[in-house]
Structure formats: structure tokens, C-alpha cells
Amino acid sequence: MKICRKCVLPETFPGIRFNDEGECNYCQDFKGKKNLEQRKLQYRSKFEKLILEYKGKANYDALLSYSGGKDSTYTLSLLKKQYGLKILVFTFDNGFLPDQTFRNIRNVVEKLGVDHIFFKPNFHILRKIFLECSKKNIFPDTTLSRASTICTACMAIVKFSALRLALEKGIPFMIYGWSPGQIPITSSIMKNNAKMVRVMQESLARPLFAVAGDDIKPYFLENEHFREHNFFLYNISPLAFLNYDETMILKEMAELGWKAPPDVDANSTNCLLNSFANVVHKERYGFHPYAFELAKLVREGYKDREHALIVLRQREKYRTYNFVSRKLKEEEQTRNKRTKYQKIRGRSKCLEPGKGRFF
Ligand SMILES: [Zn+2]
Hints:
Elements: H1 25-29, H2 33-54, E1 62-65, H3 70-81, E2 87-92, H4 99-112, E3 115-119, H5 123-135, H6 149-169, E4 173-175, E5 189-191, H7 194-212, E6 234-236, H8 246-255, H9 273-285, H10 291-299, H11 305-313, H12 318-347
Parallel strand pairs: 1-2, 1-4, 2-3, 4-6
Antiparallel strand pairs: 5-6
Bound molecules: zinc ion.
């Protein structure tokens, strides 16, 4: 398969074009590392000005969407140690966090001394959504180049549940631990406005509503959240403009008592569902859902190209894929078994009203 000679994007990536030298259009458009470093300084100073303006004005300065993975752990540590922010940490339990992730989260939040909330939505609703996303893409096609459909669904619920909480508590900063590969620097500090958030919510919540109906309402914003005075808060992804160095991050993780969970895939440090989502995406679209992120990290000099290729070629653990698949399909299988059983029983007299057992 043809792969960009500079980054790692393959010819199967949506909309990709190569020039005669075998460089992809994203590499040709990249303005260079020097330019990027200047932009990072600008964003860093913008961030520091916002801190001066908002720090200490509310009970919490920031709400961090905390997955328990290495990037969001590092983000938390930076904001607490380097900037002294008062942070409310929010973790979404999608039913597939490894046991080690729960231990990591406890260690990290206790060591850093921050308030923490676990939010675990009804698993029956999540299962219905994830299962549907494993069968087809329910979101606009543009989302497919950045993430698997399952990840997009999960992230939509995480983002809007966290935003809802931040609005209700009057917290000025919504923080994400996106790596520089996951977010363009131009989106790393964004002031929310009601119109923009409504459009974003509409594009993500509508397809989920079609799967799960009213059950998803508590995870998204409702009319009262859209009042204009609510929208002073900023979305900030600090790793896009602060130092991002994997060796430094792993050193900090060790100091915080964070250990890599054993059963995750090469692109996740906190979620088992990710393995399943990757396999489904690769089979269906012929490219890795992390190709875009890794290509950007390589292009911008954060990651070695050879290492990125190894990561992209690494297969997910069958044991993890199987565990997720069984947990997602449990209900469906039970339902099918029952139907079969009912059909057999239905032929006998046992199911006559008032005489047989009913299921
Ligand atoms: Zn490229």
C-alpha cells in the first residue's frame, strides 16, 4: 500500500492526494516546525493571560475531561503543578476501563490533591449505541478520518456531559488532554458561543437520539443551558501549545504512580473498547482510525516515523477484542436465544395462556 514518504498517511485515507515525490497534501500544506513553534508561543501567552483573568473567580478554575490515560494525566499534572489551577476532574466510565485505569485514577487524583467525579451512564444505553456504531457509521462522513464511529459516539457523550457540568457549576475553563496530533493549534483555545455549541450538539446528538431516543437527553445540553450569559467558558487543549514530549510524560507518570494497563492497544492507555473500535474501523474503511493523529505527530516532529508505522501495524489483542465483543453482544445473544427457545416452546402446549411459563 502506498504511504506518504514524510508522514504515515496511506492511500486509503479519505481525500488524500500525493505529489510526484510521494508527499501527501497534508505534508505539502504544513508550514514548517519554526512556524508551529511561533504559533505555540502565541497560544501559550494567550492561555496565560486567560489564567490571570479568570483564576480564583469561581469555586473551580477548570473542569478537566479525564480519561485516566497518559495525556490527560499529564495535562492534569501540568495545570495543577505549573499553573496552580483549582481543577474539578471528570471521568466518564464507558464500561470498558481496565482495572488498572481505576487504580491509576485513584493514585493520580490523590497524589495531586484534586476533586474528582466518576460518571457512569446506564450501560444498557451505551451498549445499544456502541453496538449500532459497530454496524454502521451514524455520524457525518467527515468524522471518519479522525476517529472510529464508536469513539466519536463515546466522545460526544463525554464532551457534552462535561460541558453541561461546567455550565451548571460556572467553571470558566473546559480542559481536554488532546495530543498535538489530535487537535489543530488553531482550535486549542476556543471561546464557546451558544450558536456554535448548538450546531455541534445537533450534529452529534441527533444520530444518537435516533438510536437511543430520550434516554440520551441527560448527557447533552438542554434549552436552559443555552442562555447567552452561560457561554463565557473556554475550551482549552494545553498539550497543543505546551511541551509535549513522550519521554518526559512517561517519567511524570511513573512519579504519580501511574502504570500502563496490560490489555489495551498501542493507541490507548485507558480504554479496552478502543481495540474493538479500531478493528471494526480498519476492516470497514481500510485505514487505521489513528492514522491522522500519528501522521500529524510525525509531521510536526513529536514522533519518529518508524515508530508511528510500528504502532499503526500493531494488531489489537484478540483477548481484548473478544471481551468487548462479548460484553456488547451479551444482551443481543440472550435475546436471540430466548426467541429461539420461545419458538420451540411455542409449538408445545406449555405456552397456552395460564398454563405455561412466560418469558
Ligand atoms: Zn504526509
